């Protein structure tokens, strides 16, 4: 089964212009075209796009994503390179998650602080900052 660029855009929530850009940049070298030169995406292309979006979400640059796909095309001789690439990306992603968890703790602190302040009608609630700091920020 094949899909049009519009169907893929809707299915994966990726803009048509982004899909065209990925193709132009060589990130989708295996996308087939109809006799009228229209892109015809298949399940393999969908998986490639999901991987691109995954790696982009973790902060990988498009040039590095392209290198990964080039290694895939080269075959088994690049397994070690691909493995190392994903180990590095995993480590970077875990650090990002840790930073986001710290940010979320601070946001949760502020949400609770303002919820209570709203109930009391003031931000000057004795001991509130210390209590909430212990609850939300001391563990981070």
Any overview of this molecule?
The chain is mostly helical and 140 residues long. It has helices at residues 5-12, 16-24, 43-57, 62-74, 79-120, 128-137; strands at residues 32-33, 39-40. It folds into 2 domains: 1-74, Orthogonal Bundle (Multidrug-efflux Transporter Regulator, Chain: A, Domain 2), CATH 1.10.1660; 90-139, no CATH class. 69% of the residues lie in helices and 3% in strands. Strand 1 (32-33) and strand 2 (39-40) form a beta hairpin. The longest helix is centred in the last third of the chain and has 42 residues, at 79-120. It is elongated. The mean pLDDT is 94.
Give the secondary structure arrangement, pairings included:
Layout: H1 5-12, H2 16-24, E1 32-33, E2 39-40, H3 43-57, H4 62-74, H5 79-120, H6 128-137
Antiparallel strand pairs: 1-2
The major beta sheet can be summarized as: 2 strands, antiparallel
Helix content percent band:
55-70%
Structural category: mainly alpha
What string, H for helix and E for strand, traces the elements in order? HHEEHHHH
The number of helical runs is 6
What is the CATH topology of the largest domain?
Multidrug-efflux Transporter Regulator, Chain: A, Domain 2
Summarize the structure.
The protein has 140 residues and is mostly helical. The protein has two domains: 1-74, Multidrug-efflux Transporter Regulator, Chain: A, Domain 2, CATH 1.10.1660; 90-139, no CATH class.
Keywords:
140 residues, mainly alpha, Multidrug-efflux Transporter Regulator, Chain: A, Domain 2, two-stranded antiparallel ribbon, 2 strands, 69% helix, elongated
């Amino acid at each position: 089964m094949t899909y049009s660029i519009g169907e893929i855009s809707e299915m994966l929530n990726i803009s048509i212009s982004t899909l065209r850009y990925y193709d132009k940049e060589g990130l989708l070298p295996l996308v087939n075209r109809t006799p009228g030169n229209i892109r015809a995406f298949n399940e393999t292309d969908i998986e490639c796009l999901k991987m691109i979006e995954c790696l982009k979400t973790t902060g990988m640059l498009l040039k590095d994503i392209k290198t990964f796909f080039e290694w895939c095309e080269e075959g088994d001789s690049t397994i070690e390179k691909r493995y190392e690439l994903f180990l590095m990306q995993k480590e970077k992603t875990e650090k990002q998650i840790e930073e986001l968890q710290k940010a979320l703790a601070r946001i949760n602190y502020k949400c609770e602080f303002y919820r209570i302040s709203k109930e009391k009608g003031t931000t000057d609630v004795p001991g509130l900052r210390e209590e909430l700091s212990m609850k939300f920020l001391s563990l981070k």
